[in-house]
Specification:
Order of helices and strands: HEHEHEHHEHHEHHHHHEEHHEE
CATH superfamily of the domain at 13-237: HUPs
Largest sheet: 5 strands, parallel
CATH topology of the domain at 13-237: Rossmann fold
Bound molecules: iron/sulfur cluster
Radius of gyration: 23 Å
Distance between the termini: 79 Å
């Protein structure tokens, strides 16, 4: 193997070669039990490394080709623009090789912005309301797999980019979390949730062939090896650049949605904005504060007292805060459209690609849902606004009246 541009040499190169060798061994050990393979690919660094390495190993005969290979690209519509653009380029390259690539998206009403601004469900958070990963990543992937399994005989081996490095291999631990720096949101879920999903049990096995890779090997592969002609001439360098190029390893940004409300910092977006080619996307920094603002009481309604659940039981948290008011949703919609318009005006002036976070169909659907007076299950819309001062109701039904009447 000769990679002229690599900064790796000597021992590190050897480690890289050993990591690839272990990947080959795991694919050759588990792969032949399955006629059909799939790849759960999010466009992030780990799954892109796993995917391009797999294609290279199949092309060169180091790993025996399965009967079918399907690549499932998880398109949340919320990806960082440079990653979404790199993914589009890589999809062309995969299709040029005759690989079946399917774009997996949540149905219109379940997409991130439509669910928040149309249905009124508040942005996800780390405490009580983490609906997003399952809804925009895991459920659509399950659905796509169910459809694929229906077309095939036998099981599918799903290849993921889950990567934990050496210590985790020792501990036999796979993280589900995507809040961690360096992690790729969704990959752990694909690894652990998909094999047990309805209609997929017994039809899906998962394999993480780069589980043992160190992060420096991922960067090395994306920046220097995969783009080289001998490894497939892949457009993976922009992925590494989006994460900070040569500093990517120290920055250690996580992969996920632009402005992810669950991440403490916005390392990934900040890193992208540092690059003069992408600095015109600065208005996207407005997303995170918008999500925070939408969770404030004056933008939401709340239960006035005790709440009886469908099961007949009394809910544990009386007077809980709930969905967004229509005014808040319209305010959020205008704000997102404005951020997008600002980015695109700058992109046009600079001759750079435009972004598409919220398209016309999604905007129309959001307005339609608001007009139809849509509320999430369990809410009628006649509940008080959440900043209304109410007597405090306890779970045992006791009421503490207001000290001062209005
Ligand atoms: S990146 Fe953040 S917002 Fe996107 S699915 Fe993951 S946790 Fe949710």
């Amino acid at each position: 193997m000769s990679v002229q541009t690599s900064i790796f040499d000597g021992g590190q190169r050897l480690q890289m070669t050993e990591s690839i060798e272990l990947t080959i061994q795991s694919l050759n050990a588990y792969g032949p039990d399955h006629k059909h393979w799939g790849v759960a690919w999010s466009g992030g660094k780990d799954s892109s490394a796993a995917l391009t390495l797999l294609a290279y190993l199949l092309d060169t005969g180091r790993v025996k080709r399965p009967e079918t290979l399907t690549v499932f690209y998880a398109d949340t519509r919320m990806e960082l623009p440079p990653l979404a653009i790199a993914a589009a380029q890589m999809m062309d390259e995969l299709r040029d090789r005759g690989i079946d690539v399917r774009v997996v998206r949540a149905p219109l009403d379940k997409r991130f912005f439509v669910y928040i601004l149309g249905r009124g469900v508040p942005p996800p958070n780390n405490n009580t309301l983490r609906w997003c990963t399952r809804q925009i990543k895991v459920d659509p992937m399950e659905e796509a797999l169910r459809a694929r399994v229906g077309e095939l005989d036998g099981s599918i081996l799903m290849i993921t980019g889950v990567r934990q490095g050496e210590s985790a291999i020792r501990d036999r631990r796979i993280e589900m979390s995507c809040g961690k720096d360096g992690a790729e949101c969704g990959q752990g879920w694909y690894q652990q949730v998909l094999p047990n999903a309805r209609g997929l049990r017994g039809r899906i096995a998962t394999l993480a062939p780069i589980l043992h890779w160190r992060v420096c090997h991922v960067w090395e592969w994306l920046k220097h090896w995969a783009p080289a002609a001998e490894f497939g001439d892949w457009s993976t360098r922009p992925i590494a650049d989006a994460y900070g190029g040569d500093e990517a390893e120290e920055i250690n940004a996580r992969t996920g949605c632009t402005g992810c409300p669950l991440a403490q910092e916005e390392k990934a977006l900040d890193t992208v904005l540092h690059n003069p080619r992408w600095s015109h996307l600065a208005p996207l920094k407005g997303l995170k504060p918008l999500y925070r603002e939408l969770r404030e009481p004056h933008h939401r309604i709340r239960k006035a007292g005790l709440e009886r659940l469908k099961s007949g039981e009394i809910a544990k948290n009386p007077q809980r805060m709930g969905p967004l008011t229509f005014e808040a949703r319209l305010m959020g919609l205008e704000r997102v459209l404005q951020l997008q318009a600002e980015c695109n005006a700058a992109a046009r002036a600079l001759g750079r690609p435009e972004i598409d976070m919220l398209d016309r169909e999604e905007e129309r659907r959001i307005r339609e849902l608001i007009k139809a007076g849509t509320w999430p299950d369990g809410w009628d819309g006649d509940e008080p606004r959440a900043d209304t001062v109410l007597p405090v109701v306890y779970q045992n039904g006791a009421v503490q009246p207001l000290l001062f009447g209005e």
